[in-house]
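Work package 3, deliverable 3.1, input record:
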Amino acid sequence: MKSLSLDFSGYERSDGTFGVRNYVALIPTVGCANEVTRKIANRVKGTTPLLHHQGCCQLEPDLKIISRTLIGFGRNPNVASALIVSLGCESISSETVEKEIAKTGKRTERIIIQDLGGFTNSVEKGTKLAEDMVSETQNQKRTNTQFDKLIIGLKCGASDATSGLASNPAVGITTDLLVKENSTVIAAETTEMMGAEHLLAKRTADPKVAKKIVEIVEQMESRAKSVGVDMRGSQPTPGNIKGGITTIEEKSLGAICKAGKSTIQSVLDYGEKPKRKGLHFMDTPGSEMHVLPGLAAAGSQIILFTTGRGAPQGFPIIPVIKISANRQTCQKMKEHIDLDVSGILEETESIENSGKKIFNSLIEVAKGKLTKAELTGYTETLEIYTRGPIV
Amino acid sequence: MNLNRYAIVMHDNDNVATAVKDIPLQEKIELVMSGESREIEIADSIPLGHKFAIKPITKGQDIVKYGEFIGKATEDIDVGKLVHVHNVESTRGRGDLSKKTIA
């Protein structure tokens, strides 16, 4: 298949990446700084807070993940500049987060609540900085660039059986088109490889990648089993089961269809940026609010998100395109669904055509068309995925 | 265009079909299996997205969809009967079975 479109327009960053949005990101380095962060966001139009609840009283491996994720948020191409909000006594080094984001050449500022003498002073200082930062972004214009600058994240949520039959395979077509255009695509959801890992392991660029896929699934499964209960009811969720999905194996076989037929280049740790183009898998759980931040930290500019029962979540700094093949959901949850591909099951549209439709919609969104999640403002909730105890 | 399609069989090896619309009890439906059309009488009401047996399934047998294993039957399942959590178990993430394994 020949290229469908050669370019998209975006905001060029000093590190050579292109944003499809132009946000001033407000990034707390610990959950304890959320109050100040939110207040600044409420006061300054054009800022976007990335509120989470991590960053302290956690062990080294988790702190590494959190730090990498926060840095990834700031480095995301959709972010024009970043204001780091620190409490001052947290485990995460706000200085490191600031420095690592600043390496991209983006303006990066930091306020420390305990140094500034508390809430009021910090909100004042942060507000002034944020106003100035937003003002700077107003002069930036979109320019055209190539598809190799695109990183697209994949997710399915509130799935039902229509996800595996239709919307995920349609996204799979889009994935293969993107890979052909030299874009980067990141699939995730390790839990939803359980029972399908043998199929993924057959499509890797390197036997080491195949081994790694099996390994992350084993780790996820043993963490789940260590609790001593049947995972069913948690994965698949009660909603999945109500929508006809019987086991995790069935859910997984449907979920992996999003990744099309392309070769898997690497397995990424949570929030890790891919080192080359093509298709990658990230080690994450299945939960929306944990998956999207991982994809964001890896540099995704847009996320394709299929749903059966109607998942409304977007993300603070990324347009999330909602796609459903469930006619009933497309009608009932219309407010949250960007693309209706239910024609696939009704045999009025082919999976291939739906995949192209998703690709075209992605180009429109890249150029600035707002998604339903952006329109409704259903974009705030996120959590960074950690694996260890809170101590 | 065929708006009368009730269900899809994803792979020739499958022993279940998935309903693409709600199917009432005792409905007789046409299904395409291995390229051939076959009539099946629905023995439960099958909601959109849910599965029913298209071959007789015995207790302990693999349930196959997408041409792949999706679980094990916990009882005999007749053709046309609903195939779901009440008669199928998963073999993954089974912390409840501790060190036991499912055959």
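The first helix of chain A runs from residue 34 to 43.
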